[in-house]
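Ticket 4471: requesting a sanity check on a complex prediction with calcium ion. Repro inputs:
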Amino acid sequence: PRLIVIDTDPGIDDAIGILLALASPEFDIAGITTVAGNIGIETTTLNAGRLLAFAGRGDIPVFQGAAAPLSRPGPEPLNLHGEDGIGGVALPAPTRGRESRHALEWLAEFLLARPEGSVEVLALGPLTNLARLVLERPDAAKRIGRIIAMGGAIHERGNVGPRAEFNLWADPEAAAAVVASDVPLALIPLDVTRRVRATREFVEALSASGGPLAAMVARLIQSYFESETNRESRPLHDPCVMLCALAPELFRIEELRLTVDTGAGDDAGALTIDGSGSPVHVALGVDGPAALDLLARRLMRN
Ligand code: BDR
Ligand code: CA
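Returned structure tokens:
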């Protein structure tokens, strides 16, 4: 199996991505590192532990990472995913406390102890932890095989500002540092994640399948529907990272040169295609029904 680290701010869609990874034998999850984003760091860390407890995977360690962006004051918590960050869905308490070491310290040591290029990082939140690794521990960062990150909007409108997507907006300097670094980066922007949509029928099919994992994901998506009324379907942003790692053939990926807007305002974190920017592999298209089908098959067999 492929050695992976999940860097995340759970988050309803993060939770679904983590459960998908746990249901995928292709992945050997070495650890989960947490970051503030959808909600504060204490809660994202707690949620990671609760998800692992639910899945019976208390053996996977959780390392708490950055509480605030690199150089800006943290945004006011938006509580988009409810006060507990996961839409009020019931989960057990963690079976194992979070590790005492900081995520950055563990990640650096872990990368240095593994063959160069053998570890992939699946990034589901603001890029603060990974930027700090790049800036403070370049010796370790350069050993990452690849980062696959949910973030940005290329031709689509943003979901925070007209062009800004939440993860990059939440820490634009971090996004800029990761994009500019030599670590191979694949980005999964809103252009793709808005095309992998759960409908109410999809939720019903998951519930009806009877498996505990599918039922949990159905509850998570259901809570997502309850957060906004009159929506026919909801995008599954973060699970697209896992889906792209598992089935790249379902995605249309192009190399683009990108810069990140580090100005103030609503479009902080916006991406611009610019010949002087850094090369990034960007997913620009996806076979949405096939991606959803893969997600459902993984969840239902567990
Ligand atoms: C991203 O923002 C967060 O709210 C989601 O978890 C996802 O990572 C989508 O813009
Ligand atoms: Ca997220």
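Notes from triage: The mean pLDDT is 95. Leaving this open until the requester confirms.
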